[in-house]
Amino acid sequence: MAKLTLNKSTFLKETRKLESYEKYLPSLDLKRKQLLAEKKKADEACLVLQDQLHELFKKTTHDIPMLGNQELDYAGLLEVEAVDYKEENALGLILPSVEAIHFAEKVYGLYSKPHWVDLCLKRMREILSLKIHILNAKKRVDILGYASRKATQRVNLVSKVLIPESRNNIRKIQIFLSDNERSAVVRSKIAKNKRRLSEVSE
């Protein structure tokens, strides 16, 4: 850290820095609060999706108990072919959002599979869709979480390091300049007294 120069120029510089920090801090803290609020909403949205997935699993187990039949082969009947994403701008952050999910469904004969396979495929689509939305929701939470942490670090840096440091520097310079002024006054008085004494002795 550079040594503090105790003069009026540095005093003005530190004063301007302090004014800038104090002006910047409220908007920085507001951004931090907005990010935390947005992250809380993203956390809640993620939990809702996870609850929906849990309920869908329960409903599927209840509605299609035949899924437990180990002899039936479901492999390759349904696959996720592609996922279309779009970008949303939230508080200056680019957040992903699922726009569309494309499935590839294997064609099967009506008599080669049980009648309830159609319902099974419908539920598989719903389950896979929810899983993709959950992954996307978690990604949004991660992005907002990282941005919230960075914003909190910046607020802490300004409020707990830079502002106290500037105030301390200003105080040191004020004390130094005040001491110098007093010393100058004392020196001036001593010089006047010496001149007066020399004039009297002449």
How would you characterize this protein structure?
- The protein has a domain at 30-161.
- Helices cover 70% and strands 13% of the residues.
- The chain is built from two helices and two strands; from the N terminus they run H-E-E-H.
- The chain starts with 7 loop residues before the first helix and ends with a helix.
Summed up:
By secondary structure, the chain is of the alpha+beta class. The chain has helices at residues 8-63, 117-201, and strands at residues 78-90, 93-105. The chain has a domain at 30-161.
Keywords for this entry:
two-stranded antiparallel ribbon; rod-shaped; 202 residues; 2 strands; single chain
Q: Helices and strands in order, then pairings?
A:
Layout: H1 8-63, E1 78-90, E2 93-105, H2 117-201
Note the main sheet: 2 strands, antiparallel
Span of the ends, CA to CA: 56 Å
Overall 3D geometry?
Answer: rod-shaped
Our Rg estimate from Cα atoms comes to 36 Å
Judged by helices, strands and strand pairing, the structural class is alpha+beta
